[in-house]
Amino acid sequence: MTKAITKSILMAAGAFALLGACSPAADGTGQDQAATQNESKATQATEKVGRLDIFYRAAGDPSKPALVLLHGFPTSSFMYRKLLAELGDDYYVIAPDYPGFGKSSFPSIEDYEYSFDNIARTMDKFLIQRGIDSYTLMIHDYGAPIGFRIALKHPEKVNGIIAMNGNAYEEGLSDDGWGLIRQYWTNKTAELEKTIAENVFTKAGMQWQYTHGTRDPESINAINWEQDFAKISREGQAAAQLALFYDYQNNVKAYPAWQEYLRKNQPPMLVVWGKNDAFFPVAGAEGYKRDVQNIDYNILDTGHFPLEEDSAVIIPKIENFMKTLAR
């Protein structure tokens, strides 16, 4: 095993041991008790896109300004439950699950190409079929490469972008957090795939992603990683997720095109970024300041999933941003 792989694994294991392994959150103590109530306020439905059933959560009147919420790895539209509960009075808020994620169809790698190009095509078709032709994009993690592909295809449809640890800059990829995956890009072997699966696709790995870098790990709702682990444990998931890990290198190659899109189109931006993210450091957030003139820039003292700890800060900022776009 290379030193880079060892360093990444030790970093993840050590941080998990310190922040999550003995956390009361693992047995439900200190949970966000509003999660179930918030979930019930959104409608849930599926849209047939080709042969796929795309599950989505939505809140609000479709005639109002649309906010499209694009989730990250390893989660689903569930990560946006608080926004769906709070923003539906004034906006049409819609959060789909990608193929292979959440409650959407999970075709095998033989039946569906698990690449960011293909998922973006599927989600673009979903939006078109739902009649959503003018919207603000909120991008988190995988939501960035999917959202930017949609934005490049339809710049006239995008009214603004909310980037929450959704990266478009090479300096926004941490060396430690991406060590295993960078190794995989140049050394695609069964041994390395096994190493990744054993250290990432586990309940401990899921929990660590939610608790690392947070101020109060015990306050993070365990339902997040319990759901994610249940989904990623399905037969065939490792192959699908590894395909996306390998394809992520094409996102890095596309960064210059996304940056040019920002410079040319100047979409207003709201940045709300957890500064303790092990995967996407603040340097990625700073990149947006170089390319976008109209930007509301906010760095938060939390981890990879800022909504879990700082929704009370983020939601008012989104409300203000959306009001600004409507002027």
What does this structure look like?
This protein is an alpha/beta fold and 327 residues long. The chain has one domain (3-326): Rossmann fold, CATH 3.40.50. It has helices at 3-19, 35-40, 81-87, 116-129, 143-153, 179-186, 190-200, 203-211, 223-232, 237-265, 282-291, 306-326, and strands at residues 43-49, 52-59, 66-70, 92-96, 135-139, 158-163, 269-274, 295-300. It has an eight-stranded mixed beta sheet, sandwiched between helices. Helix 5 (143-153) crosses helix 10 and helix 8 runs antiparallel to helix 9. The longest helix is centred in the C-terminal third of the chain and has 29 residues, at 237-265. Mean pLDDT is 90; it is low at 1-32.
Sequence-ordered SSE layout with sheet pairings:
Layout: H1 3-19, H2 35-40, E1 43-49, E2 52-59, E3 66-70, H3 81-87, E4 92-96, H4 116-129, E5 135-139, H5 143-153, E6 158-163, H6 179-186, H7 190-200, H8 203-211, H9 223-232, H10 237-265, E7 269-274, H11 282-291, E8 295-300, H12 306-326
Parallel strand pairs: 3-4, 3-5, 5-6, 6-7, 7-8
Antiparallel strand pairs: 1-2, 2-4
Helix pairs in contact: 1-8, 3-12, 4-5, 5-10, 6-10, 8-9
